[in-house]
Batch of 2 targets.
Target 1
Amino acid sequence: MAKFPSGTLGQSCDQTLRTSASPLRGNLTKNLMITQKINLKTLVLVAAASLGLVASAAAQSMPAAASAGGGLLGQNYAGVEYTYVHFNRGAPKFAHDYSFFFNQSLTTGLDLGVNYDHLRATEAGVAFRTNTASLDLTGYLDQGWGKPFLMASGGWTWVNNGSVKQHSYAYAFTTGVELPVGSSVAVAPFVSYSAAPKIAGVHGWDYGVKTNYRISKEWSTSFTISINDDKDMSYAIGVNYHF
């Protein structure tokens, strides 16, 4: 299930930023100059167009989604999400995260997700950026009362913290249960473990809850709150187009 929850590989990016940027964990010189290599507006437009093309092609060749409800498991959709990350200690104090994702139901009980994530923050004139591309496979069981699920994610993350540049493969495992609340709302508590092994110190646990509200047949919105084992908080809001 794409981008479920926000704290999978995206949280690996958060941990990468904290590890490299925090004076408690890193040794980054504060007088590094900002090097802005990513035009966010162009990035948003390109990502949105790419998602549209992928969604259109997949919709013609892949199985139909499960019947509409409040949840996201078993659904075909594309979406965007914004996350505000508040770091509990060190610097920077906060970051902004932008995600673009696509989810396709492969068969009953199995979803494929494609994700792109861009996180950015600034501290003392230094720009911190991470970019992550990943694929998810989510297996779930529809028990009527809810859908227990297990998601495995894998991808690559690129880090640009001032003049410090790093990259690594990244992975995450997430488990939880999606619980229907009426006919248009679903709540999903989850726990996940993520890591980027080639970057020292980038690994950890996240705990949270995702709520999704089905506005109409085509549209839904979601809100996610999560905390990691460093007590950093993430608050995410997203919009999904179902097809």
Target 2
Amino acid sequence: MVAFNNGASLASCLAALRAAGKGLNLSVTVIDNCSRENIDSIIRNSGISADIVRSEANLGYGGGNNIGIRRALGKTPPPSAILVLNPDVELRSGAISELCRVLQETHCGAVSPQMSDPPGANQETPSRSLWGRRTRSIRSGGRPLTSVDRLPGSCILISTEALKRVGLFDEKYFLYWEEIDLCVRLRRAKYELLIAEDVAAVHHGAGEGCLKRHRAYYMWRNQIYFSFKNYGPFLGFLFVARRVFVADAREVIRYVKQGRSELVLAGLAGLWAGLRGESGPSVSRFALPESSPPGT
């Protein structure tokens, strides 16, 4: 779990962990991603035993999580699975236990719960693939599952075996798209990615996170790097074109309707930075977080 100036969310997340992982031997690691808050006090007050690893710089989503993943993989014996969790996600009782059961029963590479925003409307579960194909619903032992080509970076339980095979998060993204990049590598290694529809979690920062300048900047910038890295020059160009004229165009319309023209400027600045080959943390004024950044 990566913490960056989101103490209130972190406290709620930690408070829910014990019930979410009942019956499991949980080992919790919190990465202090150069936060200004007193992470020690927040963890101590939560009543959860957790290791704290401090970073001297904000390494972003991928870099911060990689610290925790390497720490977990270095244990003897290593855990059978690693949960990547945003501090603004509240897991329901038994959620981690059920996700572990799905991982064991289906032998998939990674699984996520059915995410919802605070009012209860489903979100973050893709109904179509990255290329527009519909997702596939399946059942395993009577459990409803959805087979997808990407999982929400806010909560992913990943098989340790799969991580060792495909590698960790690509830190060139800094924020956004790195979990999709990892999912593409998992799928290419023949691992299935599943949404457990009967396992619930709430992503409290999902709605507000979509209206942040840094989110628009990095989302639009990193789609360029992702496309050409994973699909090559021809398919990469087609993927970027589809993103710009469909997904990005929808975002522009939404931003304008909400009177947030600065988000359009942030997205365009990110797109230009991506075309220029920028990667890692940006010094652009649009890339500076207005508050704690969401995972994805």
